């Protein structure tokens, strides 16, 4: 892993996601790019200065804000490993993230989860979903207030799809330095042998294409997919939940 892109709205509630992104990139020995997206306000005709000059000034001001945000919350860590700062003017956060990702070709994009204090609804569910619909790189969502700890167990929720192979392969690349356990789980509604048989078939298909020693396979019965996944995360004290982006609702 060489490049990680972290997008932030520079609010206090996003500080924990910044720390997580920085420490994760440090462990992975990857370059960390911090992106902030902003709107350029409407210009009145009475403004004397050229618009281009105003735009350049605002861009530098936003970069300074991002730098101050990083210095404030990373403290001494900020000086240990260089961070590349990007301030991008765009009315669409997801478009700016995608455009920046096209230039940087990151191995991973890190986002903070929905922040009620964000003026732009920066990571509202609809923005995150639209981003996932349009990208082909892994996206890591960091909940508010979470502290970085060494990744030990990852739960990957599967529906036995061929498309799961690529994200699991990328997940192995991400967690291999941590020697973390990957638990492949499938949540099903009725207690039949079908789920176990399909899991065995999926396991055989996966192991023909990937190699990773610390990987287990489980099927879990639950009335709802979401509650079943949460139950697994809690019982295994998982550091991370991973899955292929899907259209269906987890609450079904």
From TrEMBL:
Q: Which Gene3D superfamilies match?
A: 3.40.50.12370
- Write down the InterPro entries for this protein, in alphabetical order: UspA
- Extract the PANTHER family matched here: STRESS RESPONSE PROTEIN NHAX (PTHR46268), UNIVERSAL STRESS PROTEIN UP12 (PTHR46268:SF6)
Q: What is this protein called?
A: UspA protein
Superkingdom, taxonomy of origin? Bacteria
Q: Which residues cross the membrane?
A: none
Q: Would you identify the family this protein belongs to, as annotated?
A: Belongs to the universal stress protein A family.
Traced from the root, the source organism's taxonomic lineage reads:
Bacteria, Pseudomonadati, Bacteroidota, Flavobacteriia, Flavobacteriales
Every copy of the UspA domain together lies at 1-143
């Amino acid at each position: 892993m060489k490049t990680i892109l972290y997008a932030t709205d520079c609010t206090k509630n996003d500080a924990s996601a910044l720390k997580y992104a920085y420490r994760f990139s440090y462990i992975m020995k990857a370059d960390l790019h911090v992106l902030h997206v902003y709107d350029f306000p409407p210009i009145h005709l009475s403004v004397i200065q050229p618009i281009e000059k105003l735009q350049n000034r605002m861009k530098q001001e936003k970069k300074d804000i991002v730098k101050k945000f990083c210095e404030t919350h990373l403290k001494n860590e900020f000086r240990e490993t260089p961070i590349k700062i990007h301030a991008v003017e765009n009315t669409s956060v997801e478009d700016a993230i995608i455009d920046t990702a096209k230039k940087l070709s990151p191995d991973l994009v890190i986002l903070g989860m929905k922040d009620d204090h964000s003026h732009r609804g920066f990571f509202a569910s609809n923005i995150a979903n639209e981003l996932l619909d349009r990208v082909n790189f892994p996206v890591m969502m960091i909940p508010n207030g979470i502290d970085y700890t060494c990744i030990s167990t990852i739960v990957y929720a599967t529906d036995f799809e061929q498309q799961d192979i690529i994200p699991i392969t990328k997940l192995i690349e991400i967690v291999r330095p941590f020697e973390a356990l990957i638990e492949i789980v499938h949540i099903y509604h009725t207690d039949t042998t079908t789920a176990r048989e399909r899991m065995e078939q999926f396991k055989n298909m996966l192991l023909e294409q990937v190699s990773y020693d610390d990987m287990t396979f489980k099927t879990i019965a639950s009335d709802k997919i979401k509650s079943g996944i949460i139950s697994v995360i809690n019982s295994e004290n998982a550091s991370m939940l991973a899955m292929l982006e899907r259209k269906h609702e987890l609450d079904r």
